[in-house]
User: What shape does this take?
Amino acid sequence: MTARAYLDHAATTPMVPAARAAWIEQSERVGNPSSLHASGRRARRVVEEARESVASQLGVRPSAVVFTGGGTEADNLAVKGLFWAAGEAAGARRVLVSAVEHHAVLDPAQWLADAQGAALTLLPVDGLGRVDLDVLAHELTGPPVAVCSVMWANNEVGTVQPVHEIATLCRSAGVPFHTDAVQALGHVPLDLDGIDAATLSGHKIGGPVGVGALVVDPRRDVTPVLHGGGQEREIRSGTLDVAGIAAFAAAVEHAVRGQAERSAHLLGLRRALERGILAAVPDAVLNGDPGERPDRRLPGNVHVSFPGCEGDLLLMLLDAAGVDCSTGSACTAGIPEPSHVLLAMGASLAAARSSLRFTLGETSTVADVDAVVAAIPAAVDRARRAGTVSLRTV
Ligand SMILES: Cc1ncc(COP(=O)(O)O)c(C=O)c1O
Assistant: This one.
């Protein structure tokens, strides 16, 4: 089999050697961290050392780190748990989330509105996908808000939000602020000072799938979503995944320590990919913030609309040519949905449907970029012809 060009690191990225080694080492041993015997105490020690390591890499207290079964679970815990706790404490019923959140935040927020009597406001974004701070400030002056959630960096178009300005606005209004930092960790500097809660996910940073964390200020009340054995300060019940947590901690250390070097590598490849795509398809349109600073855009994200093409067809044609990429948007019951992110940014339905996301990672190479640039012209040409045919036959 010839090597494939993998440009879907935002979906999942390969495990780094340190994480794999930690996982293998711990998976060969037995012991439930809640058991009182020596094997259990050993397992508990591994978990607590992992907690201390994650906390020190992120500059927070160990008690702030609540291990979860991944990013989706941590997002659910933050949105529902902070909403319920604020409701119990102060009767606050409002939920503010940005219109470009991942479904792991959007859907629990919508569920709170549909099933739990929350009043949900989707915060609008500008053409680059950035939240309007004036609108947020205005919303915070209304009836009490239980929780505000705005992602650190967008998984589709890579836009980085003004997270600290948002945190400051929320803090002055006394509103708990959560940020989904799943795509940001390891790609931009992550300063959690002043942030009440942040979501992390293992498999986006070179750790295993199915483990992550909610980093939450221990002074904040969070009502649990899962009830059971009372693990993780009773915030998240369930037997702890020792091997996964040890591997996650190794991946967090790797992500944080290598961030500056990694980002420079990704930025170089991103520039080459953008240049190559525009040279091959001159009417292609780059989406999102053109900025290169870490407070503007993720360094490894390239998001492009190819006018006249169906993104899903283009994806399949590139797949056949050995390139793995993504449309970035969700697929409901096998039917491709236009991206809610691009629509919120003001894109037309046609533009939203004609887009592809290429995401670079630590293992990406110039050869990956060259493979995309070589495959794009023929794929775009075929997708355009298919588009014309289907228009004629409808
Ligand atoms: C921004 C963002 N949040 C949350 C998630 C969900 O994380 P997990 O796959 O660990 O459940 C993802 C994964 O695609 C993501 O990109």
